[in-house]
Amino acid sequence: MRAFVIGEQSGLDTWRLVERPDPRPAHGQVLIKIHAVSLNFRDVLLASKSYGFPVSSPDVIAASDGAGEIVAVGDGVSRWKVGDRVAGIFVQSWFGGRQPDDAFQHMLSGARDGMLAELVVLDQEGIVAIPEHMEGVNNIV
């Protein structure tokens, strides 16, 4: 699969397109075919090396927001099925209330790979459903 990684140099123009093996979902995870990605100001700050927290690796996949369709589920997945339309949540361990102290360790496109890839694996708890009335998401390529 293809993905864009942040790289070591500063600037959006230094993101690199790389080829990686297709990921597979493990226990409790889902595999998402990405249909849409959003570029946020945070992503620009990460690219310019001025976010305040370093990314875990120059090979981390960029972009913290994305949406797509589940194409495979791992063992133990009970909340989702193939074909469900979903979006990833930014901090994979923050489900409500006060921000966890270790939030940065669970941020997409920071300590974890982001969403700017053809395929992404996330925990079944780290995604939300795209409402049915947002039917145009199916048509984004």
Structural class of the helix and strand makeup? mainly beta
Overall helicity? under 10%
Please state roughly what percent of the residues sit in beta strands, choosing from under 5%, 5-15%, 15-25%, 25-35%, 35-45% or over 45%. Answer: 25-35%
Identify the quaternary structure here: single chain
Morphology:
globular
State the CATH class: Alpha Beta
Largest sheet: 5 strands, antiparallel
Count of discrete domains: 1
Supply Rg.
Answer: 15 Å
Q: Classify the fold: give the CATH topology.
A: Quinone Oxidoreductase, Chain A, domain 1
- N-end to C-end Cα span: 15 Å
Strand order of the largest sheet: 6-3-4-5-7
Per DSSP E runs of 2 or more residues, the count of β-strands stands at: 7
**Residue windows where pLDDT falls under 50 for at least 5 positions:** none
CATH superfamily descriptor: Medium-chain alcohol dehydrogenases, catalytic domain
State the order of secondary-structure elements, H for helix, E for strand.
Answer: EEEHEEEE
Mean pLDDT: 88
Number of H/I helices = 1
CATH architecture: Alpha-Beta Complex
Explain what you see.
- This protein is mainly β and 141 residues long.
- It has a single domain, classed as Alpha-Beta Complex (Quinone Oxidoreductase, Chain A, domain 1), CATH 3.90.180.
- Helix content is 5%, strand content 28%.
- The chain is built from 1 helix and 7 strands.
- The chain has one helix at 41-47, and strands at 2-5, 16-19, 29-38, 65-73, 85-88, 119-123, 127-129.
- Strands 6-3-4-5-7 form a 5-stranded antiparallel beta sheet, with no helix packed on it. Strands 1-2 form a two-stranded antiparallel sheet.
- The protein is globular, with a radius of gyration of 15 Å.
- The relative contact order is 0.26.
- The model has no long low-confidence stretch (mean pLDDT 88).
